[in-house]
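Hi V.,

You were right to ask for the full record rather than a summary. Here it is.
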Amino acid sequence: MTTTLRQARVIAGVLLAMSLAVPAHSADRSLEFAVKSTFLYKFASFVEWPAGSFASDTAPFNLCVVGADPYGGRIEQAVAGQRVDKHPIALRQLAKAEPQSGCHAMLISGSSRQTAAEALEAVAGTPTLTVTDSDLGSTAGIIHFVIVNDRVSFDIDNVAAARNHLVISSKLLALAHSVRTAEGAR
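Predicted structure:
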């Protein structure tokens, strides 16, 4: 499959997921959590990591959850058997974020051992795509999930992405609810 066709399929999947209305304040939030869990690995197809970020072309893509899984095991279900390009996804659970964790993407929920702000600070400047959720507080990673008009959306901090040596595709930036750039937010 060509890269362009693969990217088109990923974009179609992201658009479909974004079009799903979710129960933002209901007791049953399983659809919301499933959408967010899928976004976690779909985002990676729109991010360019610096050379040397992977040991080989087929080395695992390390998706790490720092603290408790806020989506009740749905991340594991979403990533089972999935790949990011040629990289199989390896899901790892961490008590604390550390600069040498080897995580390519990191969902940060905070814990008693490390707040979300401390976790973000720990991996600042490393090639790690940090993801946070508005449900868990106002501390925001490079990508921050938000609910807008009862739909899962996300904000992107492109300045923080650049500090972490990551390049986010204009296609993903166009899908974001808001984007922070050096010039400000759009």
